[in-house]
Amino acid sequence: MNNDQNISIPPVYVKESEIHGRGLFASRDIGKAELIGKFKTRPAKKDGAYVLWMEEDRGYQVLDDFKYINHHNQANAAYYDDFTVMAIKNIKKDEEITHYYGENWGD
């Protein structure tokens, strides 16, 4: 496998989370502002398991391991409208990758 192929493999794995159910964890140190990966989706018309609402009328079901990103008030990652996930802080190997879902979610 050449270096270009290695770059496309997200540096993450799934395991049980102390926050909620399963979580997404860093398989290596990830630097602030580093692209962690891009998740795969399909449009969703109603709420359900692993549905991400980009706007009130635009829902997407996340189809890969990125669906396990849990909420945390001091998140270390963010995802964007193009479905990329970026580190917003340095993330240590084996640390859970988290996103701030908004004010209606509690820790």
Can you put this structure into words, describing what you see?
The protein is mostly beta strands and 107 residues long. It has a single domain (3-99), classed as Beta-clip-like. It has 1 helix and 10 strands; from the N terminus they run αββββββββββ. The protein has a 4-stranded mixed beta sheet, with no helix packed on it. The chain has a 3-stranded antiparallel beta sheet with strand order 3-9-8, with no helix packed on it. β8 and β9 (84-87) form a beta hairpin. Residues 1-7 have low confidence and may be disordered.
List its salient traits.
4-stranded mixed sheet; 5% helix; Beta-clip-like; 107 residues; single chain; mainly beta
CATH top level is: Mainly Beta
**CATH architecture assignment:** Beta Complex
Strand order of the largest sheet: 1-2-10-7
Secondary-structure element series = HEEEEEEEEEE
Structural class of the secondary structure composition?
mainly beta
How many whole angstroms does the radius of gyration measure?
A: 14 Å
Number of domains: 1
- In CATH, the homologous superfamily goes by the name SET domain
CATH third-level topology: Beta-clip-like
Number of H- or I-type helical stretches: 1
Quick check: average pLDDT? Answer: 88
CA distance, first residue to last residue: 41 Å
Secondary structure: number of strands: 10
